[in-house]
Amino acid sequence: MSGMMSASFTQHRFRGTARGIRHIVTSSPSRFAIVIFAALILLFTGLLSLPIASADGTVTPLSDALFTAVSTICVTGLTTVDMSSHWSPFGHVVVFVGVNIGGLGVLTLASLLGMVISKRLGLRAKLLAAGDTNPLRAHGGVVNESQTVRLGEVGQLLTTVALSALIIEGTLAVLLYPALVMAGVNPISALWEAPYFAAMAFTNTGFAPNAGGVAIFADDYLVLTLLMIGVFLGSIGFPVIYTLAKHVWHVKRWSLHSKLTLITTTLLFVLGAAVFLILEYDNPATFGSMDAGDTTLQAFFLSAMTRSGGFNVIDMSDLNGSSMLAVCMLMFVGGGSASTAGGIKVTTLAVLSIAVWSEARGRQSVEAFGRRIPSDVQRVALSVVAWGATIVALSTVAIAQITKAPIIDVLFDVISAFGTVGLSSGLTETLPDSASYVLAATIFMGRVGTVTLAAAVAATSRSQLYSLPVERPIVG
């Protein structure tokens, strides 16, 4: 009898726990996503701390294991250890699996896990998933049905996310294998390096499995071009991939989000390359010793990597100060929404730019491509920039105070961490434990996203049923 009562009590507690998890998933999927990412970081920290994960069979220090786990799950690419020599084959496999999990995106991953746990997505979870992966993010006002992803399509869209990642990475790996072999890589080693580089390119992580990294392919146009393509596809975002897959030859049917993402990404890519050509053409440590063809390719490659790619052929510390500042600005913007890239996102920049232009022309509404951008989207864009700038500023001050390092080096690595880029001035590898924890927190906040953090906090906010008298302060 007592055994039956104990079993019944255990079953009751299990059901209660399941109901509690289901409630968290359906009522606040944004906070659930944060919890999931934090749990994954702890799990991978434990795996990377195992003696089997290091090349010399010793336990990796907690600060290094934690930082690598954060950088892996948050697909960043910054590291406090030499990735090619420190980790064993087991450690490299852990990193490879981690970046693919992280590359699915924080809300996408949370929605998939929520679907498994709750058997079905609740209405709020569906709305949130539709909002994050929707070509036109769902908002508080009325949305034209033709411009949204129907709730019934969310499952299909989430499946597309996983399949697109698998197909793109697989195709990149197949193309990279002969390119690596022709570049002099051992055919057996290339069997591992091709999918590794493919995953790191598409997830915009930037880790390299080989000694010397991408720098050994500095003169190989094919390898560098394939890596740029992988980074571009990863940085435009799953909503754009989803739209292109459905309407690739019908530009008029592209969503406003897709148009803004592709146009802004292309403009930043070209303008960034032009800026680097102008600023670095006479720098003997970077482009000054190259011919015109190499200089042009390297300028475009550097511009592409600032999207969040993280691969680098030239040493970032060799750049002129003006170029490092330009890299910082591009890294802060990052890539597309719901993508493997970080930063404030190109659509945020596009919306704010259009709003400023509309204000300068005295227009009452903000419009683009025959569509009106509602005021709540503009407020979210402004909030994202404000929160991002605040995170970068606080982290920069903290790390500069701890390390006493040159401020440009600190700012460079902090923005790289926030934008989950992975480029480094060389500072990250020399950070003391306290500073590495601050940088790891910056990476986490950059990957989870300021909008997600804001949504998690706002989940408990109450509606205001009254409005206060209007008074206009002087601005400007």
UniProtKB/TrEMBL annotation:
One of its GO terms (biological process) is metal ion transport. The keyword Aminoacyl-tRNA synthetase does not apply. Keywords: Cell membrane, Ion transport, Membrane, Transmembrane, Transmembrane helix, Transport. It is a multi-pass membrane protein. It is found in: Cell membrane. The keyword Protease does not apply. The chain crosses the membrane at residues 93-117, 161-185, 197-218, 224-244, 256-279, 380-402, 437-459. GO terms for cellular component: plasma membrane. GO terms for molecular function: monoatomic cation transmembrane transporter activity. This is Potassium uptake protein, integral membrane component, KtrB. It comes from Microbacterium esteraromaticum.
